[in-house]
Automatic annotation (TrEMBL):
Coiled coil: none annotated. SUPFAM superfamilies: EAL domain-like, Nucleotide cyclase, PYP-like sensor domain (PAS domain). Residues 440-573 form the GGDEF domain. The gene is cph2_30. Residues 582-837 form the EAL domain. Transmembrane segments: none annotated. It comes from mine drainage metagenome. Residues 104-155, 217-277 form the PAC domain. GO terms for biological process: regulation of DNA-templated transcription. Residues 149-203 form the PAS domain. Residues 1-21 are annotated as: Disordered. This is Phytochrome-like protein cph2.
Length: 844
């Protein structure tokens, strides 16, 4: 503490009328600051220069071992405890603050009751006291440990190879070490004989010269004050930096020398500035924090009051803190009605148990808005039985809203606002017992939108999202009270239908949902028509566990989708067995992709004019270590359903390209090989093109030896995109053909715009052309149409001489089938090419 130059007053003046008020103020501050860290104090510098400390908080006892009364006994506070070496400078700091009314930042050593030296750091705000004097309200914090750490570090640095400068008695540089050269940018030769002022800015250099002169004359001056000094150094390039130096005087052969050991303290000053900023922030917390510091009281007669509140209450509730103490009515009125009684009950419970009170309160602020405030307060019982809490309320509105948003998202789909699967199953668990008791049924309905992915692909995800929102609104409109709708996937929903009297009513209700969804949706100037499939499981006849019933409904939905769009199926146990087989097959397919178990078999395509092999189709075969070959009819649908078909097609492309190169290296006549492209690949053109380019670059295969087959349904699902993709492939030298022609829904106006090379007639039309006039007519029409469009025609499934003769008479260009050759492994196909085998053609 700063000490007065004046002698302490030994005779106290009689009490005046304001003394009771002053004592009340001291008691008030003693109470409210009891739980605060450090020491809260008041300091008064009277107009006549007398220094007085009318108030110390109880914290002084913990730090110095003296009671607040002992500290106040002389009126000058720390006269007997402040270290003598710090008094003058500390007093100067206080008087400077009094003159400028600027914040007083003070640091000094104090002697405890036990004789220990403690470092105290304080911050206090001055203000006129109305009597010509100055009053400071401040806080002192024990910083002994940090100071000791600094002193320990300083000792290490003092013995380190820091900057060392030797001066003669007139302040001229005698020698410097290498650290000085590095730090200041001068060489030792440049500095020798120069005044040390050369290393200081002008404002410091002139003052330093004066100190040297005074020391030479009087032997006194600041140059040899204990401990290091902080200066500002100036480098050769003119830049300034904070510099700390410790100076000592030595005598060498009768010559007076000064040795200075210094260092750049830029980083430390930055740290001190940050520390100061932190202290300032801590000082301002009670005023600036987004909350309210308060005292709450509960009197023996049950009245709640607030003897003190910080001014933040004016911003939050519109109440003037200067009116404190005031009763609880305005504050309690601001608490949400449904929380008010519970809060009052908690106050009384805390008063009985003296347990800390922590609560979240929803308050109405001055503008009518809502704010969540978290209140912490610690109670104590006063002599008259009153319970007093010291506390703080902080604004946690943002966090509360975030928690509520997270809770909402945990139970709601963010896009459609439908519930989540977890919430629906919670509702199921809640209702199941009641439904069972009432003899009613619950139905879980898994609903899936048919071909939703094609809507996203053709119209874009934004339209797809809008469609999901609109159809969810439509489904909500169909729900009865108690029913629950959840979105459980991209295009999948789960419905909980409650209070169903029988199975027939469930079926009727689900059909109404599906019928309602078939009504067109108007979006983006488009009328979009959709359908849905549904899988149903029923409580309690299909089971009593909600999770299991939901899974069973999903299984029924998967089976319904396999049947076709718009299908509704109820769960039967056999579906689980099929689903289990499908899941097992899916896992085996994934492992097969990793092990590259898929291999191509090659079926020749023969020209009907020359009888020569002019091409071949690669057909995928899966050979497993355990079961041997698995039929494509068994695994292709599963691969398509679970998105594994892309990987299989890519493996086939790579294997066929490598095999073509091997045949070329063997000197065989190589013909183009046709590889099937899945619909998924075709609708991801960027990935398809990148994959093809990678295969061709890796193998070096000419694009003319690779033909891509896509099904009619894939091409016609988005004709505009099909034309674009086929054109891109054609630009890269790849030929495309339409496979399984006749099984889809082709438009001739669209077909003629496709840049393809050939059509392949599906084998289902070829098998009975000799006996079925309809099939014969269809094949005849396809051949004529293709030739009119200048396309080659390949007939698949040619197995008999009759098939051959019929097609040759029609002018069909090529055939493929068992009549010439079954699909062959690569080795056998190579031998067939080596033999130059031809088809013997009958004479027309």
């Amino acid at each position: 503490m700063v000490l007065s130059d004046r002698a302490p007053q030994t005779q106290k003046t009689p009490p005046v009328d304001g003394e009771d008020t002053a004592q009340h103020t001291v008691a008030f501050w003693q109470t409210i600051s009891r739980n605060l860290p450090g020491v809260v104090f008041q300091r008064v510098l009277a107009a006549d220069g007398t220094l007085d400390y009318p108030f110390f908080s109880e914290g002084v006892r913990a730090i110095l071992g003296f009671s607040p009364e002992e500290m106040r006994v002389t009126g000058q506070g720390c006269l007997d405890v402040e270290h003598w070496a710090d008094r003058a400078e500390h007093m100067q700091t206080v008087r400077q603050s009094a003159r400028t009314l600027q914040l007083c930042l003070e640091e000094f050593r104090a002697i405890t009751r036990d004789g220990e030296v403690r470092w105290l750091r304080g911050t206090s705000q001055p203000r006129p006291d109305g009597n010509g004097g100055i009053r400071w309200d401040g806080v002192l914090i024990d910083v002994t440990e940090s100071r000791r750490a600094e002193q320990t570090l300083q000792m290490v640095m003092d013995h380190a190879a820091d900057s060392i400068i030797t001066l003669d008695g007139e302040g001229r540089i005698v020698s410097v070490n290498a650290a000085v050269e590095r730090l200041f940018g001068y060489s030792a030769a440049e500095l020798a004989g120069q005044s040390v002022s050369r290393l200081l800015p002008d404002s410091f250099g002139s003052g330093h010269d004066e100190y040297i002169a005074r020391y030479q004359q009087t032997g006194e001056g600041r140059i040899l004050e204990p401990g290091p000094r902080e200066l500002v150094g100036r480098r050769k390039d003119g830049t300034a930096f904070p510099f700390e130096i410790s100076t000592s005087e030595v005598r060498l052969e009768g010559q007076r020398l000064f040795i200075g050991i210094g260092r750049d303290i830029t980083r430390r000053k930055e740290t001190e500035a940050a520390l100061f900023a932190t202290e300032q922030r801590l000082l301002d917390i009670s005023v600036n924090m987004p909350g309210i510091v308060f005292q709450r009281s509960l009197s023996p007669d049950g009245r709640i009051g607030y003897p003190y509140v910080s001014r933040a209450i004016q911003d939050i509730l519109g109440l003037d803190p200067a009116l404190a103490p005031f009763d609880s009515e305005p504050f309690l009125a601001a608490i949400s009605v449904d929380m008010r009684e519970a809060f009052i009950a908690k106050v009384h419970h805390s008063a009985r148990t003296l347990a800390p009170l922590e609560d979240d309160l929803l308050l109405t602020d001055a503008g009518g808005g809502k704010r969540w405030m978290r209140s912490w307060s610690r109670p104590r019982r006063l002599a008259d039985g009153t319970v007093m809490w010291d506390g703080v309320m902080l604004d946690v509105t943002d966090r509360k809203w975030a928690e509520e948003q997270l809770t909402y998202l945990a139970y709601h789909d963010p896009l459609t606002k439908a519930f989540t699967r977890a919430h629906l199953l919670e509702r199921f668990d809640t209702l199941a017992g009641k439904m069972l008791k009432d003899g009613q049924l619950l139905a879980l309905v898994s609903l899936g939108i048919d071909r939703f992915s094609s809507i996203n692909t053709t119209l874009g995800h934004a339209v797809g999202d809008q469609l999901l929102i609109r159809l969810t609104e439509r489904l909500f409109g169909c729900l009865n009270e108690g029913d629950v709708l959840a979105r459980v996937g991209g295009d999948r929903f789960l419905l909980l239908l409650t209070g169903m009297p029988d199975v027939a009513e469930i079926a009727i209700t689900v059909e109404q949902f599906m019928t309602r969804l078939r009504d067109p949706f108007a979006l983006e100037d488009e009328e979009i028509e959709i359908s849905a499939c549904a899988g149903i499981s029923i409580f309690p006849q299909d089971g009593i566990n909600g999770e299991t019933l939901a899974r069973d409904a999903d299984v029924a939905l998967a089976r319904a989708k396999a049947v076709g769009p718009g299908t509704m199926l109820s769960f039967v146990p056999e579906m689980n067995a099929r689903a289990s087989r499908t899941l097992t097959l899916q896992n085996r397919l994934r492992r097969a992709l990793e092990r590259e178990e898929f291999v191509p078999f090659y079926q020749p395509q023969v020209d009907l004019e020359s009888g020569e092999i002019i091409g071949m189709e690669a057909l995928v075969r899966w050979f497993t270590p355990d079961d041997g070959m698995i039929s494509p009819a068994d695994f292709i649908p599963v691969a398509e359903e679970f998105g594994l078909i892309d990987g299989i097609c890519e493996q086939m492309l790579r294997a066929c390209s490598r095999q073509q190169l091997l045949w070329r290296e063997e000197g065989l006549r190589v013909v183009p090989v046709a590889v099937n492209i899945s619909g998924r690949q075709f609708h991801q053109p960027k990935r398809l093109v990148q994959s093809l380019e990678a295969v061709l670059a890796e193998t070096g295969l000419p694009p003319s030896l690779l033909e891509l087959e896509l099904t009619e349904s894939s091409a016609m699902s988005d004709p505009q995109q099909a034309v674009s993709v086929i054109s891109v492939l054609r630009e890269r030298g790849l030929v495309c053909s339409i496979d399984d022609f006749g099984t889809g829904y082709s438009s001739l106006s669209v077909l003629k715009s496709f840049p393809i090379g050939k059509l392949k007639i599906d084998r289902s039309f070829v098998l009975d052309i000799a006996s079925d006039p309809n099939d014969a007519a269809i094949v005849t029409a396809i051949v004529a149409m293709a030739h009119a469009l200048k396309l080659k025609v390949v007939a698949e499934g040619v197995e008999t001489q009759q098939h051959l003769e019929f097609l040759r008479n029609l002018g069909c260009d090529q055939i493929q089938g068992y009549f010439f050759s079954r699909p062959l492994p690569a080795a056998e196909m190579g031998r067939l090419l080596a033999e130059g085998r031809r088809l013997t053609l009958p004479t027309l």
